[in-house]
Structure formats: structure tokens, C-alpha cells
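Quick start: what a row looks like.
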Amino acid sequence: MMVDNQRLLTETINRMANQGGRNAPDGPAPNQYSSYKDFMDTEPPSFREAEEPFQAEEWLNTVEQKFRLLRLTDGLNAEYAAHQLQGSAGIWWNQYREALPDNTVLD
């Protein structure tokens, strides 16, 4: 079960980080001035673990709503979301990032 949660979380964060066409030219421009404090003021949920896959999807959907509200740049999405990972999910994310090649950017 833990391996499935880790795989799901990896896919979720990577999908969030790689949503390149989200800020298409016909949509609102990204807001380069939204800060982490602005994000936290929206009261985003934290994520520890998912007993069912839909729980991770629900978390992702809620966090993405916050990103759209603030019109965050794509580069900030994964960084802000990663700060909401707690417990074993946060530990796993830190280990996952450390395993990536140096200077890897999730955007």
C-alpha cells in the first residue's frame, strides 16, 4: 500500500509541476507577485498519506484551485505543494528530490 501511495504521489507532483499549457495565452497571465504567504492565506490542505487514490486526487484538485486563484507561475506550483507534504509524504518527497540529478528543475 505504501508503494502505491508513493507512486501516486510522484505522479501527482510531477503532473502538477509539468502542466505547461495551463497558462495559455488566451487565459490569465501568471501572477509573478504571489508569494508563499499569499498561498498559505488560502488555507491549503496538507497531505500525509492516502488510503485511497481519490484522496490524493482530492488534495491535488484543492491545491490546484489555490494555484489558479493566485495565478501562480508554473515554477512555484511544485515548490509550494511540496511544502504541504507532511509526515511520511514529506520525508518521501525530500528523498525523491535528493535522488534527482543536481540542478533538476521541476517546472
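That is the whole record. Residues 20-25 have pLDDT under 50 and may be disordered. The CA atoms of residues 3 and 9 lie 10 Å apart.
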